[in-house]
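[Solved] Which block belongs to which protein?

Original post:
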Amino acid sequence: MKNSDNNLGHNQRNIAVGGKTVYGGTVGVCMLDTQFPRIPGDIANARTWSVPVHYRVVPGATPKAAVYDKGKDILEGFIDAAKHLVDMGADGITTNCGFLSLFQEKMAEAVNVPVATSSLMQVNMVQSLLPKSKKVAILTIHKPSLKQEHLIAANVPLDTPIIGTENGKEFTREIINDEKEMDIDQARQDHLDAVKELMTNHS
């Protein structure tokens, strides 16, 4: 009887298991190396999140490298950042640039946690929630730079409507040139104007 009681007590011990450096931050964000404003709602503004996050900047990874140059020469930096974030305690990895869908396969292979490199990966999920008469569209910072290979890497149908803000006055210029100030109202208007154009062309 005593042995049974001892076994029961042993099985009910309150055990904590380690293996990480930092706990409570479930998401790791691999960051472009930027200085432009990160307003609430931006993935790189920690106040956007309802859960704690880890961040890791990839030195030299500029917006132009990600958008115009297809991430040339910065992939290894993002893989290293992802590994560091996982070692710190992140249970999942993402990035702050949709154009980095090109990195999806190699980054996912490099770490043992779920990886979502691009917001483009949400297209199929959102489409599945819509009636058949409706279709997802993509609003991007620079339509000419969003190529078929970006879409294929994120499993996005190639006939998905796309519009960019590159014809606006503020948003694309400010982000791509990594400027320190942003006219929030004008940046918002650039988005609204682009969406209106898209709706007109795809109504």
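(Second protein starts here: sequence line, then its structure tokens.)
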Amino acid sequence: MTRDLLIGKLRGELNLISGLEFFDGDSEKIRLSRDFFDYSPVLNKQLEGCCADIVVRPHSVEAVVEIASACKKNGVPLTLRGSGTGNYGQCVPLQGGVVMLMGALSRLRHFDPSTGVVTVESGCLLLDLQKQLI
């Protein structure tokens, strides 16, 4: 199966997942496929041109599991992206595939006031946590 057919098949499967937002514009895909690696002349050269084929934002943990499962089943790389503020290329899709934006998963799951231990979803920023604890 050609790469285009494989990505098209995967896109069809992802379309069936509820609570999933797609970013289809070329400029969006380029922007969401990079962090601040361009601060490094070495990484800038190595990572230039790396871009996702599909960019999605799940709105539930269940959607994350379904996306990961579909990528695995189809042999398509999956790259997780937080807020993209890193500068080492951690969220750059080296071989295309899917970039999954984790920012919508920002809930506080559990707080133990006696220990101060919190359990949060993967997209939870400190500001999100502060708002939920007040």
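Accepted answer:
You had them paired correctly. Confirming on the second one: The mean pLDDT is 94.
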